[in-house]
Amino acid sequence: MSQNATAESDLAPEAVCWPLRTVRLGRVYEFLSDCASTNDVARSRAAAGAAEGLVIVADSQSAGRGRLGRSWHSPAGENLYLSLLLRPALPAREVAPLTLLAGGALARTLAEAGMVSRLRWPNDLLVPTANGPRKAGGILTEMATSGEGVRHVVLGVGLNVNSQAFPPELAERATSLRLAFGRAIDRARLLVEFLAAFEATYDDFLARGPAAGLVQWRRHADLGRVCRIDQAGTQIEGIALDIDDGGALLVRDDAGRVHRLISGDASFSTTEGAGLAQG
Asked: What are 244-247's contacts with CB under 8 Å, separation 24+?
């Protein structure tokens, strides 16, 4: 089943639904010409009883957002703005790795299309540019709980695909796949391949836990850098060593202590051992 609320588009249902190889994800596909935020639409559909697998895609967003309330630049006709509705039968405390698993699936999708990317904890996708790695994508996971269980998870993905210009406040730290790799990208094909990759990772996570998916994240991870994490007003600075099976970042400080960080505002150096720059 699909809905189409706009004129012809490369992300319209007829361009996306027929090549899908998934069992659940995207089998209900809602495409909007514009919305405030695809995560908000997905959350509303979840409250109304929508089934797991619903995919909301918008051609543009008027109030797209990333982590910590930051806005997400969302012009029309250029990029991917999507949200997946998931209903994992898991305790809420076990859901945190989903953000990393989605990042791993996205990086794998790009790699298979010949595009190199790196993943920066907890939710950023970076691609190479002449001025060093810049952010091209981010993942925002929002969960509704009932007691210790999960009612639903909305997993939002914003990916700069074909943008060729950014507002001044983003121009020095953001880029797109088109700018980084020098060619226009088929948004529908990218979406179809990502949904297939993530569904396989998600199903394995439900059946066996996050270990295999986190291996995929580590394969593309931007680790080994100096980082600073602001967690509830406390700053931890050190070397980003690894992640654990819960998706927490392991940071070794100058005294040799290893801190397990499950959330926070993260800044990473642009080169190993260099001063910090906002990632």
From this structure: 245/97, 245/209, 245/210, 245/211, 245/214, 246/94, 246/96, 246/97, 246/210, 247/96, 247/97, 247/99, 247/100, 247/122, 247/210, 247/214
